[in-house]
UniProtKB/TrEMBL annotation, chain A:
<feature type="transmembrane region" description="Helical">
    <location>
        <begin position="168"/>
        <end position="185"/>
    </location>
</feature>
<feature type="transmembrane region" description="Helical">
    <location>
        <begin position="235"/>
        <end position="258"/>
    </location>
</feature>
<feature type="domain" description="ABC-2 type transporter transmembrane">
    <location>
        <begin position="64"/>
        <end position="254"/>
    </location>
</feature>
<dbReference type="InterPro" id="IPR013525">
    <property type="entry name" value="ABC2_TM"/>
</dbReference>
<dbReference type="InterPro" id="IPR051784">
    <property type="entry name" value="Nod_factor_ABC_transporter"/>
</dbReference>
<dbReference type="GO" id="GO:0016020">
    <property type="term" value="C:membrane"/>
</dbReference>
<keyword id="KW-1133">Transmembrane helix</keyword>
<feature type="transmembrane region" description="Helical">
    <location>
        <begin position="56"/>
        <end position="79"/>
    </location>
</feature>
<feature type="transmembrane region" description="Helical">
    <location>
        <begin position="100"/>
        <end position="125"/>
    </location>
</feature>
Automatic annotation (TrEMBL), chain B:
<keyword id="KW-0067">ATP-binding</keyword>
<dbReference type="GO" id="GO:0005524">
    <property type="term" value="F:ATP binding"/>
</dbReference>
<dbReference type="InterPro" id="IPR003593">
    <property type="entry name" value="AAA+_ATPase"/>
</dbReference>
<dbReference type="InterPro" id="IPR003439">
    <property type="entry name" value="ABC_transporter-like_ATP-bd"/>
</dbReference>
<feature type="domain" description="ABC transporter">
    <location>
        <begin position="21"/>
        <end position="273"/>
    </location>
</feature>
<keyword id="KW-0813">Transport</keyword>
<dbReference type="GO" id="GO:0046677">
    <property type="term" value="P:response to antibiotic"/>
</dbReference>
<dbReference type="InterPro" id="IPR050763">
    <property type="entry name" value="ABC_transporter_ATP-binding"/>
</dbReference>
<dbReference type="InterPro" id="IPR017871">
    <property type="entry name" value="ABC_transporter-like_CS"/>
</dbReference>
Length: 265, 353
């Protein structure tokens, strides 16, 4: 990316944030729904999980699930409606490169997601008196998560004929994320094959990295073993690897399926 | 300085260094449908070139290939000597594009839309206004709950197209014609060397149309090369140095407006009462058979005489016509001898095809 691409991406990200604030439906879906979801999940009576109070366990993992709303649903809707309204066509004919357009949308979604994660962090600190121990790891999880779900959103928008249909297109991904993400339980409590599938989905490593970054412990298994800073990064390596693979898969799918213009005829 | 250079528009286009747009043997297919069937033309620097045609003639497809939206199925295209696809990045800052429709974010205001586009345009810092209006003071407008300054470039662009009073209105509240004007403002914002205008005045009221024409004329006079598509013959006649009439993917005629109109020849027209007239009832004049159309209980008759001295021959042909009418005791209502028009050429091409 050139310096011009970066400047264009920042301008487009600012545009996205402005538009989120002007559309009440988007505002609700992107900003409020994830927080309501966090409230709902954290109200489940889970008791202690892996040596951590259940509510804290849930809240430290729930940002992974928020990606579904702040990034995936948000961007599938944005890409699809902008394609139908020929906004993407205008951008493509203008000076911003394809990379800058994509990066702009990703950057806007990242900002929304980080804001929500910050709110969760404040929530956990205010009511549970727990501070995150490894913020860089959490930010890395956020960046990789936004990259994966942003690319998947681009791909899914290509399969979505119009903005109305986007509500249906996103449902399978949303359901899989809500069922398989280890938000309210450690991943290894799932039955064998389901645990394998869950571990390979992009949402699981994000939840794991977020939780490890917050609590400084490896909660992949039910142990919740406390880790040093170096240990946290080491424990996160498999998750980072899985997410990088998903970035490649997402990029290939987006390259194959994403469309800048409505289909002719 | 404007260069006027007549060039062939059907296959042997002049390809000198002054040609800003060069199209050679362009073919464009979508599946089995061939939208453009081997067209060639060149547009010299500072010229307005109009592509005329019915819906589906291939005008917009041609435009989109030149704009770099789609690679050509066959043939060559160059804009400012660059390949619109492979050298898109170099070309983009030098080109302004007015889409046929859409392309706006409805929740942005008009001023915000221009601001955004200005921020995304490399050379948009230069004031873009009609002569004499560059000294406009920056205006202020309410955007939501904040007060934001609308800078001089943005106001200049909006004034250029007569939208300065709509600066704070959201784009989704604009009429179709106002959106077209906003589109023009965005297209000219970066002072492009080449301007692509796809049906620029569709949906505009007559006043806005004339404002748009004035903008295009000023840009042309300033040296901007313009390629425009239009349905409006009057628009092409007023703006274009040269034009081409496309139908079903081919260029059927081309040249300056005068050259194209000259191909229509001179016409003798009149009306006969009743609708029972056939070709055999009417005389052949100067070797030309009549064209008949039936309307409102009468028959409209037209003879088109083309070639050298068509005007003289048309007047000469009046004598046998009047003699025929005299003999038959018929009245030739609204008898006229007139030069052909662009519309005549257009209708002849569409009708023949």
């Amino acid at each position: 990316m050139t310096k011009t691409d970066v400047l264009h991406a920042v301008r487009l990200a600012r545009l996205d944030l402005t538009l989120v604030g002007r559309n009440t439906t988007v505002l609700f879906n992107v900003m409020l729904m994830p927080l309501l979801l966090a409230a709902l999940y954290s109200s489940f009576p889970t008791g202690d999980v892996g040596g951590v109070e259940g509510k804290v366990f849930v809240l430290t993992g729930v940002p992974g699930l928020m990606l579904a709303f702040a990034v995936f649903i948000n961007l599938v809707n944005a890409f699809t409606s902008r394609r139908e309204e020929l906004v993407l066509k205008r951008l493509r004919g203008g000076q911003p490169s394809a990379m800058a357009v994509m990066a702009g949308s990703g950057l806007g979604a990242l900002a929304v997601f980080l804001f929500q994660a910050l709110l969760i962090g404040i929530w956990v600190y205010r009511f549970e008196d727990v501070l995150p121990v490894n913020v860089p790891l959490m930010v890395l999880a956020a960046v990789l998560g936004v990259a994966v779900f942003g690319l998947l959103a681009a791909a899914f928008s290509g399969m979505t004929p119009n903005a109305e249909m986007a509500q249906i297109t996103v449902l399978p991904v949303l359901l899989v994320m809500m069922v398989a993400a280890p938000v309210a339980f450690p991943a290894d409590v799932l039955p064998g094959p389901l645990a394998v599938v869950s571990n390979l989905l992009p949402v699981t490593p994000i939840v794991e990295m977020m939780r490890t970054g917050f609590l400084g412990a490896d909660h992949f298994a039910d142990g919740g073993e406390k880790l040093t800073m170096a240990g946290q990064w080491t424990a996160a390596l498999p998750s980072i690897g899985i997410l990088l693979v998903w970035v490649v898969i997402g990029a290939l799918l987006a390259r194959w399926l994403f469309r800048w213009e409505p289909r002719h005829g | 300085m404007r260069t006027r250079q007549l060039a062939d528009a059907t296959g042997t286009g002049t390809t000198g260094p002054e040609n800003v747009i060069e199209v050679g043997g362009l073919r464009q297919k979508y599946g089995d449908f061939e939208a453009v069937r081997g067209i060639s033309f060149t547009v010299p620097r500072g010229e307005v070139f109009a592509l005329l045609g019915t819906n589906g003639a291939g005008k917009t497809t041609t435009m989109e290939v030149l704009e770099g939206y789609a690679p050509a199925t066959d043939g060559t295209v160059r804009v400012l000597g660059l390949d619109p696809i492979r050298q898109h990045r170099e070309l983009r800052p030098r080109v302004g594009i007015m889409l046929q429709e859409g392309g706006f974010l409805g929740d942005l205001t008009v001023a915000e839309t221009v601001d955004l586009w200005k921020g995304l345009s490399q050379d948009a810092g230069r004031p873009v206004t009609l002569s004499g209006s560059t000294e406009l003071p920056g205006g202020f407008t309410l955007l939501g709950s904040r007060i934001r300054r609308v800078d001089r470039v943005t106001m200049g662009a909006l004034e250029l197209v007569g939208l300065e009073k709509k600066a704070r209105v959201r784009v989704k509240q604009l009429s179709g014609g106002q959106k077209r004007r906003l589109d023009l403002a965005l297209a000219v914002l970066a002072a492009p060397e080449v301007l692509f205008l796809d049906e620029p005045t569709t949906g505009m009221d007559p006043e806005a149309r004339r404002t748009t024409w004035k903008v295009v004329e000023e840009l042309r006079d300033a040296g901007t090369t313009v390629l425009l598509t239009t349905h409006y013959l009057e628009e092409a006649e007023r703006l274009a140095n040269r034009l081409a009439i496309m139908h079903e993917g081919r260029i059927h005629t081309h040249g300056s407006v005068e050259e194209v109109v000259a191909t229509s020849g001179d016409m003798i027209t009149f009306r006969l009462p009743g609708t029972s007239w056939t070709f055999g009832d009417l005389p052949v004049l100067d070797g030309v058979a009549p064209a008949l159309t039936y309307a409102s209980g009468g028959t409209e008759v037209g003879y088109t005489l083309s070639g050298p001295d068509a005007g003289t021959r048309a007047h000469a042909a009046l004598r046998p016509l009047l003699a025929w009418a005299d003999t038959r005791g018929e009245t030739l209502e609204r008898l006229a001898v007139r030069r052909g028009t662009l519309e005549d050429v257009f209708m002849r091409i569409v009708g023949e095809a």
